[in-house]
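subagent[fold] <- orchestrator: predict structure for attached chain, return tokens only, no commentary.
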Amino acid sequence: MESSNSNPPKEGLHNPSFGPTDSVVNLLLFKWDVVQRLFSTFAGGWPGAGLLLLRLLTGTTLIYSGLSEIREGSPPLCVALQAVGVAAGIALLVGFFTPVAGLLATFAKAWITIWRFSSHSGDPWMALIQAILAVVLAMIGPGAWSIDARRFGRKRIDLSDC
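subagent[fold] -> orchestrator:
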């Protein structure tokens, strides 16, 4: 009697997961379902409504504070970071590439927070709050009422009409 420690290969389709060596560019350009892979579901109902409100709040504050800082004539680096924050705020507002937009906003606002703490100019707390809200959205996802959910969400096939 022969003993084998290996399992026989399973039948069916092979669905490889993304490896740590896959580049972000390849994931975004060539594998469009990357956003769906980042979330287990796109929450609907009350949780989806909560995510919609969180996206609206975060996007609006990023846009408003960024535009007001740009109009005030801040230093060039701060203006560039605020412009990134405004662009990410627009993407978060509509729920477009939410994880990427959330991380961009987080890095921009974290940099602004560190700069304000070190230079003792301006209020760093609002930028810190915006960074935290943006990273929360990057981790949780956009919810059912977003462009991401329309483009990358699970599809429902209704066979009752056949």
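orchestrator: received. Logging for downstream: The chain has one domain: 33-152. The chain has seven helices and no strands.
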